[in-house]
Amino acid sequence: MSFLELKNITKIYPNGTKAVDETSLNVEDGEFVVFVGPSGCGKSTLLRMVAGLEDITDGQISLDGKIINDVDPSERDVAMVFQNYALYPHMSVYNNMAYGLKNRGISNDEIKNKVNEAAKLLEIDQLLSRKPSMLSGGQRQRVAMGRAIVRNPKIFLFDEPLSNLDAKLRNQMRLEIKKLQRQMGVTSIFVTHDQTEAMTLGDRIVVINNGIVEQVGTPKEIYSKPNTKFVAEFIGSPQMNLFNCKIENGIVKIDNNQITLDKKLNIENACLGVRPDDIQVNNNGQYRCIANLVEYLGSDMIIYSSMGDQEFSCKLSSKIELKAGDSFNFDILPSSVHIFDNITSNRI
Amino acid sequence: MKFKPVEILSHFILIFGVLLMVLPIWFSFATSTHDNVAIMTEGMKFFMGESFSQNYNEVLNEKGGWSEEVTAAKMFMNSFIMAFGIATLKVVISAMSAYALVYFRFKLAVPIFWLIFITLLVPLEVRIFPSYKIVSDLGLTNSYTGLILPLVASATATFFFRQFYKTIPDELLESAKLDGANSWRFFIDFLLPLSKTMLAAMFIFMFVYGYSQYLWPLIMTTDEKYWTVVMGMKIIFTENYEGVALPRTGERFAYIILSMLPPVLVVVILQRWFIKGLIQTEK
Questions:
Q1: Does residue A71 belong to the interface with chain B, where contact is any CB pair within 8 Å?
Q2: Chain A contacts of B190, Cβ < 8 Å?
Q3: Is residue A346 in a domain?
Q4: With contact defined as beta carbons under 8 Å apart, do A348 and A294 qualify?
Q5: Residue-wise over B218-251: b if at least 16 C-beta within 10 A, else e?
Q6: Do A83 and B171 touch (CB under 8 A)?
Q7: Which of A13, B2, B33, B248 is least crowded, fewest Cβ atoms below 10 Å from its Cβ?
Q8: Would you call the peptide bond into A238 cis, given omega within 30 degrees of 0 as the criterion?
Q9: Nearest of B269, B94, B103 to residue B190 by alpha carbon
Q10: Nearest-by-Cβ selection for B282 from A82, A103, A133
């Protein structure tokens, strides 16, 4: 039995919206799982159901061998870091961290030890007497984490905790969260809409769309073998190029170009996916297109082009000299393409 | 430093406003320090007189009323108790009922809120007979309970607290829940400290409201022991009008000045808290 088990979880809001549909998931002890998906896909709802902040319409959640469907949030022994941190504005940092412990009837000495320990770990031991309003965004984030850590919960829940930080701080905190989780070995669920965060943080990623789990897997699995068109588009930056096409006898036709696949497939309405970095630009390339737009990113650059009326992008080293309006040659290796059925949008 | 014409004008208007407010009070105070002969012959005074201690001493300690049982000091006490009781209970009850309305999502919350709100249209003066009937049936006439109880429900304060609670982010409640706070703890540990400013402001308003009640204590009390300051203002030091004695204008002004002190004190004390809350934005 897994540490956290979600069985056929469904959430229907009173207004009839189905936020989560028959979702099942197992999370092992000490695992870092990331829920990723566009906003409104139900990932936060799922997390909040684990926390007990949302009622479960149907299904069953068990944590550490105990069914917790109707257990009060305060009894579940979970800690949550909120998007806006939800620090207690009228309490000092120390009291923010100590409050949950006080409510559990822990002695003052022990609280002091725990808070100091956590504060040292997060390097906020100088700030313990301050109020949240006197802290910077990054410091608030740390306090929110500290509040979760001192409780020593069974599971950490993160609800887009990094989305209020600027880009630089976000990268730094991302690393710290990862490090901290490794160090403490606490099972964690992290919700984000940012695929970079998902890829870098998660031991496993759960891609959710419209309340349905599209794919569960390690970052590598998800990136290299996306199960559906949605996952293919959502994971990876810049996003995967998708060409609508017809496949006959293993030959893909896009505009006037042909790609010969490894397998002899016949699909009327197919979709060919190629990652922008799998498009290999070289002078002897089989295909030729005109660069409509070139984005320079330092070490890399992204070229936007089109085959017929289907636009695509490719990512290549910026050492190659190319400007908008130039034409360029490239190859698409049959081994690097992803094929989806356009009707079911599943991988073939 | 040079002033622009607009600044001079606005300062002029402000100074004029201040004088308009302060001068009558100063006149009253200055007049209250003169003896009655001077006031009678020379009218209102602008400068301080000699009879300060004599007038104020008389006001506080002389027994007045028809049965000569009540002193002004006693009336101040009564008014203070009444106003304090009304303000405290109003704030406590409104804060709690607003908490119930906002955080406990039961079906009738909205209708109940509007029902409370509608009571704004029915002030005490409109329902004074039924109110009196109930209080007298309960045997509460001539008691502090009777003075306070019918006035402790406040739609205004409930409304303000409700609006304030609605601005508190839901995450705070959720986070507190996960930290093991039950409904009662959330109210005590979160809502009350967060609404300090509101509490102070409401207390000020409600104290002044309670302090300036006239009709209710007038109807409620037949025993002079329970007279309040505002009632006394009409009655005290008037009994000697007829006959040869001079009207005791000096004492009456002293009484008026004294009667302003308790609310002013409440405002001054709580204002610090109030302004502190405004400056330290805690959200």
A1: no
A2: 88, 90
A3: no
A4: no
A5: eebbeebebbbbbbbbebbbeeeeeeeeeebbbb
A6: yes
A7: B2
A8: yes
A9: B103
A10: A133
Count of C-beta atoms within a 10 Å radius of residue B268 = 10
- A347 lies in some domain: no
pLDDT at B243 over 70: no
> What value of ipTM does the predicted structure carry?
0.82
Per the CB < 8 A criterion, the answer to whether B249 and B260 are in contact is: no
Tell which A residues from 145 to 204 touch B, by Cβ distance under 8 Å: 147, 151
pLDDT, tens digit, for every residue of A209-260? 999 999 999 999 999 999 999 999 999 888 999 998 888 888 888 878 888 8
Q: Which residues are bridge partners to A205 per DSSP?
A: A34, A217
The tens digit of pLDDT for each residue in A267-300 reads 888 899 999 989 988 888 888 899 999 999 989 9
What whole-number distance in Å separates Cα of residue A7 and Cα of residue A21?
Answer: 11
- Separation of alpha carbons B230 and B147, rounded Å: 14
Taking domain B62-236, whether its CATH number is 1.10.3720.10 is answered by yes
Amino acid identity of residue B51, one-letter, is S
Q: Cβ–Cβ of B189/A53 closer than 8 Å?
A: no
Q: Please, are residues A47 and A190 in contact by the beta-carbon 8 Å criterion?
A: no
A106 touches chain B (CB under 8 A): no
Number of domains composing chain A: 2
- Does A215 lie in the same domain as A250? no
CA distance B278 to chain A (A): 13
